[in-house]
């Protein structure tokens, strides 16, 4: 029987960025947890990610702020080009620092993953463990692994990506009971495929752009071809690149059918990419050195094992939890990475969930259902805003009439109005309620986080109780 102030036990399925963030936070909270990852070794594919004021205060709370900044490259602008390499007006992100007191950084995804992995004790993360089934009763949830191992806990968290095995098992139960919404029974829609990679360390004399302390982030929109390609520099003297192929509806359906035939559960796995490399290697890139360069030059400088071809899906599911199971990140909302919000929303999910798990009064089914409902209610507005931004960026890149109008507005917007747009991007700056708060900086006050306030109240009450003993 559950008692007040009883800390729940947690099983996290998936060791991606969201799962590791949740584990790192639970480690600080004293909540017992284990992480299970189906891959024997997680290759943190993908080139890099943007880290700024929506996450940096959390890294301060975790004590890894300086380490994160050491692998990041400060970014102030993004530049968008026509295929002829004629420049549109750059987008200026410098007001963000005025609004929040923090800059924006491009961080190598593999290096970032290494830092987060170090926050988890080795005995609490289990690689090569595939979940076959999940069952539960009034008092506990149980996961059944492919090697016949069984683990029990109060909560199961599905942080295992867009093709989440946890979500699939949960939805099977709901569907059998007639409780699964129709929207959640539909397949994930594809909008594009993406080729992604990162070069080896480059010679600064041959590639002067990497010597610039400011990240050179450049987007090229194909004029008469359904491609967008992106390059940007890192603090590790490498060039990251991404090539997006915008699909027609027919191609998208065919790609979807192929994906399901492959039964691939990891959206950032290694895919045969040579055909797409061959198709796009003559696309021109601008590296500010006066030389004519192409994507093929960058492909040739990239280790083959760091090139991957992925399908990019977009969907926000309606059902995020059931019983003692709850979803996180791509498992409940898959965002197109062109919007740059996918990793951030997953980690914000982890922050809200960690706060609520810490503050839950008992491990009863009723109390867990209540915090899961609070979690989804808090996260949905930010997720839908990110989803809208992602779709907006997708429209710009796929070159339709709507995209052309948005691009014109995007590149001709008055600076005062652009600054108002940026304000919206920094409103969600949650913190962890059970760790020392980081003083707010900047001129824009963040949205109130109910989960943070709830965890802070419990933390302060417990601190008072300990002090009075």
Automatic annotation (TrEMBL):
Record domain FAD-binding: where: 9-179, 304-384
Keywords, in A-Z order: FAD, Flavoprotein, Membrane, Oxidoreductase, Transmembrane, Transmembrane helix
Stored InterPro entries: FAD-bd, FAD/NAD-bd_sf, FAD_mOase_fung
TM annotation in the entry: 400-421
ATP-binding listed as a keyword: no
SUPFAM superfamilies, A to Z: FAD/NAD(P)-binding domain
Domain of life: Eukaryota
Keyword presence, Lipid biosynthesis: no
Family recorded in the similarity comment: Belongs to the paxM FAD-dependent monooxygenase family.
Name of this protein: FAD-binding domain-containing protein
């Amino acid at each position: 029987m559950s008692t007040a102030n009883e800390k729940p036990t947690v099983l996290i399925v998936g060791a991606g960025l969201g799962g590791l963030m949740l584990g790192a936070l639970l480690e600080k909270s004293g909540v017992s947890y284990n992480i299970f990852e189906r891959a024997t070794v997680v290759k943190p594919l993908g080139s890099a990610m943007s880290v700024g004021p929506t996450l940096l205060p959390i890294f301060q709370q975790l004590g890894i702020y300086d380490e994160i900044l050491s692998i990041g490259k400060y970014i102030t602008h993004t530049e968008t080009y026509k295929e002829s390499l004629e420049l549109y007006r750059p987008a200026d992100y410098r007001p963000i620092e005025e609004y929040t007191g923090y800059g924006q950084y491009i961080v190598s995804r593999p290096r970032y993953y290494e830092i987060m992995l170090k926050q988890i004790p080795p005995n609490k993360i289990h690689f090569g463990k595939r979940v076959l089934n999940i069952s539960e009763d009034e008092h506990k949830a149980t996961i059944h692994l492919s090697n016949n191992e069984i683990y029990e806990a109060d909560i199961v968290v599905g942080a295992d990506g867009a093709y989440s095995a946890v979500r699939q098992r949960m939805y099977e139960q709901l569907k059998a009971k007639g409780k699964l919404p129709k929207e959640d029974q539909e397949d994930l829609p594809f909008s594009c495929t993406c080729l992604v990679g990162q070069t080896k360390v480059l010679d600064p004399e041959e590639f002067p752009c990497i010597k610039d302390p400011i990240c050179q982030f450049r987007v090229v929109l194909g004029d008469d071809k359904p491609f967008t390609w992106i390059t940007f520099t890192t603090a590790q003297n490498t060039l990251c690149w991404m090539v997006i192929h915008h699909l027609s509806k027919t191609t998208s359906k065919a790609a979807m059918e192929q994906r399901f035939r492959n039964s691939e559960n990891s959206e950032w796995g290694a895919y045969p990419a040579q055909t797409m490399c061959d198709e796009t290697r003559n696309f021109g890139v601008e590296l500010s050195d006066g030389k004519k360069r192409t994507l093929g030059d960058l492909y040739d400088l990239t280790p083959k094992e760091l090139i991957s071809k992925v399908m990019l899906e977009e969907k926000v599911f309606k059902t995020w939890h059931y019983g003692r199971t709850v979803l996180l990140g791509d498992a409940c909302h898959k965002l197109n990475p062109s919007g740059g919000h996918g990793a951030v929303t997953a980690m914000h999910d982890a922050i809200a969930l960690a706060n609520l798990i810490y503050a839950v009064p008992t491990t009863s089914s009723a109390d867990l259902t209540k915090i899961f409902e609070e979690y989804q209610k808090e996260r949905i507005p930010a997720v839908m805003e990110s989803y809208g931004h992602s779709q907006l960026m997708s429209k710009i890149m796929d070159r339709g009439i709507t995209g052309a109008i948005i691009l014109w507005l995007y590149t001709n917007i008055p600076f005062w109005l652009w600054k108002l747009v940026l304000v919206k991007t920094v409103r969600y700056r949650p913190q962890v309620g059970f760790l020392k708060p980081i003083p707010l900086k900047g001129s824009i006050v963040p949205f109130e986080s109910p989960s943070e306030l709830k965890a802070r109240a419990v933390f302060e009450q417990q601190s008072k109780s300990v002090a009075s003993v």
